[in-house]
Write a structure and sequence with these properties.
Chain lengths: 81, 206
C-alpha cells in the first residue's frame, strides 16, 4: 500500500512493475492484493493488450485514507510528529 | 509483553513503509530516463548534419563551434530534465552522484588522451578520428551507466560504438551522414524504448 500511495491519486501501476519494485513473487503479491481488494483498498483492473493479459493496480480513495490513518497511528504510537 | 513489543513493531512497520515508498519514488524517478537519450540523440543528429553541411561549404571553423554550442545546449537540457523530473517525483536517482562522477572523469580523461596525442607531435588526427575518440569515450560512459541503471543503456553504448567504428573504417565518405542516422536510431529509438520499457504502466487509460 505504501508503494501505491507514492503514486499520484488515481494512477495505476502494472502488476509486473509493482512486483519488481517490491521484490516479491507473483503469488505473494497476488495474495496481498486480493486481500486488499476484498476490503476495498485497491482496485485491480484486468485487461488485454493484443493477446497479452495485463493487470493494473491502483489505490482506492478508501485505501488512501486507511493508509494515512494507519501511518498516523504508527507515528502517534512512536510519539513522532 | 504484547504492549512492550508494540512500539518496536510500529517502528518496524514504519521502516517498511518508508522503504516501499522510497523504492516506488526511485522507480518513478527512473521511468523517464529515455528523455536524456532522446535529447542527446537529437543533439548528435543535428551536430553530424551541420558538420556535413559546413564541410561541404568549406567552413571548418564553424564545425568547431557546432561541437562547442551543441554539447552546451545538451548539458543545459540535462539539467532542465533532471530538475523537472526531481520536481515531479521528489526523488533523485540514488546513483545520480556516481553518474555525475563517471561523466566528469570521462571528460577529464578524454582531454588528457587528446592532449597526449597532440603532444606526441608527429601524430595528427583527422575529423573522423577525433569524432570517434570523443564519441566512443561517451559510449563508454553509457556502458558504465548501463551497469548502474540497466542493460539497455549499455547495449545502446556498445552498438553505437561498434557502428561508429565500422563507419569510420568503411564509410569515411559518408561518415557524418551515417553517424547522424546511427545516433537517430540508437539514441532516439533507444530513448523511446527505455521510456516505454521502464514505464510503470504501459497502457494509456482514458
Amino acid at each position: 500500500m505504501a508503494s501505491l500511495y507514492a503514486l499520484a491519486e488515481g494512477d495505476e501501476i502494472e502488476f509486473i512493475a509493482l512486483r519488481d519494485i517490491l521484490g516479491l513473487s507473483d503469488g505473494n503479491l497476488s495474495s496481498h492484493l486480493i486481500k486488499l481488494e476484498e476490503v476495498g483498498y485497491v482496485k485491480i483492473r484486468k485487461t488485454f493488450e493484443g493477446k497479452k493479459p495485463r493487470t493494473y493496480i491502483s489505490l482506492t480513495r478508501k485505501g488512501r485514507r486507511a493508509f494515512e490513518d494507519y501511518t498516523k497511528s504508527l507515528m502517534e504510537l512512536l510519539k513522532l510528529k | 509483553m504484547r504492549e512492550e513489543n508494540k512500539p518496536s513493531e510500529a517502528q518496524e512497520s514504519l521502516i517498511q513503509i518508508i522503504e516501499a515508498f522510497r523504492r516506488m519514488r526511485i522507480a518513478l524517478a527512473r521511468r523517464k530516463t529515455g528523455n536524456y537519450l532522446i535529447l542527446w540523440g537529437f543533439i548528435l543528429f543535428v551536430g553530424y548534419i551541420l558538420t556535413e553541411i559546413f564541410m561541404r561549404l568549406g567552413k571548418y571553423d564553424s564545425i568547431v563551434w557546432v561541437w562547442i554550442i551543441l554539447p552546451t545546449i545538451g548539458l543545459i537540457g540535462v539539467c532542465l530534465i533532471t530538475v523537472n523530473q526531481t520536481k515531479k517525483t521528489k526523488e533523485r536517482f540514488p546513483e545520480g552522484f556516481y553518474i555525475f562522477l563517471i561523466w566528469i572523469s570521462l571528460v577529464f580523461y578524454g582531454f588528457i588522451i587528446f592532449a597526449v596525442i597532440l603532444w606526441m607531435g608527429n601524430v595528427s588526427l583527422n575529423g573522423i578520428q577525433v569524432s570517434l575518440l570523443f564519441l566512443n569515450l561517451a559510449m563508454f560512459g553509457y556502458v558504465l551507466m548501463g551497469i548502474l541503471l540497466g542493460k539497455e543503456l549499455a547495449l545502446i553504448g556498445i552498438s553505437t560504438s561498434i557502428l561508429s567504428v565500422l563507419c569510420g573504417l568503411f564509410l569515411q565518405e559518408f561518415f557524418n551522414l551515417a553517424m547522424a542516422l546511427i545516433c537517430l536510431i540508437t539514441f532516439i529509438g533507444g530513448g523511446f524504448y527505455i521510456n516505454k520499457k521502464w514505464e510503470l504502466k504501459n497502457e494509456s487509460t482514458s
